[in-house]
Design brief:
Chain lengths: ~280, ~110
Amino acid sequence: MIRVGCTFRAGLIPHLWAHPDLVDVFEYTLDSFVAAGDDGRRAAATCAGSGPLRLHSIDLSLGSPAARARPRHLEEIREIMRITCVDEISDHLAYSRVGDRRLHDFAPLWRVEEQVDLLAENVEWVQERIGGRLVLENVASLYDPGGELTGAEVANEVVRRTGCGLLLDISNVLINEINGFCDANVELATLDLGAVVEVHLAGGELVDGLMWDAHSSPVPRSDIEWLAALLPSMPACQAVIVERDERLQNGAELIDDLRAVRAVVDDVNAARTVGALA
Amino acid sequence: MRDVVATQQIVADLLIDPEARRAWEADPAGFASERLGQGDEAAMVASLDPAGVAAAARSHVVKKERFDYLHRLHHEHEDRKAARATGDHHHDHGRHPDGHDHRSPA
């Protein structure tokens, strides 16, 4: 069964109290648990005890050598995974650290074979140390390094080499198309949908002609339509998550987004149930 | 064999260092070839869209400020907690699980 959920943000909780039927699962930022040490481990246990959860990491920097520079961080992640009984975590098809410098953002990958080699080696190395599977998310970007491969081809090849899963951020693909960096039809037709275990959706923000992945506004209708078209072809998908990190006071927008996603997911779950019974 | 890691170093310079970004904006090809030679690596760096890189640099600044603020709050909380536990009102809680401390660069 595919679950519906959203990012866990304290500011969203008051909006969700009146709609317990809309959220099956919360997605937590794994780095927050790790950074808080003992308090974080206790919080992770509490969250895991209160319902299904997914763990989203934001700073493994899988596209750069920095991915291997913090073995202690990976030990902490492994411990949080043990506490929460989770066997896979997500992070990004990007890099966020270069040497000891933090970018505080996801830098898009140069889509060349040598980058795929580095990425795949890092994914294998990290998976071994956390004792679980990585799920890799495509990112939105404000500039495009280009390369001979498409984003989908990079993702597919890393899946093939490492056995990792994919987190398809539909909104990020559409943002990259708006910014002129890809053809969403080609990306989504090429991507190995069988490897997708989670979907993200979010509303962006247009600033000076560039679309930002701001998680600040309603999910566009076009993104929901893409979800409806693609989700039936994702047999391994476990969750569809609406990301909302800004303008949390506008909770009604999140409720509308969750209702739209719920309608799509309910249809796909019902079709699967019928298919399983037939 | 293209040196992906070398390009990442230069891109990080462009995002973090305003002086490097200004030099690149003034002469993208010259800036890139001076640091990366004449191959594909330099061509990639020279071809990046200046408006996009400038936007990403602004994003870096905003997110770093937010990170630094939350990081400071976290350490203040940890210090208060440690002080309560020890009775030492000037307690320094030391290192994070990932090895950094109050004085580490963010």
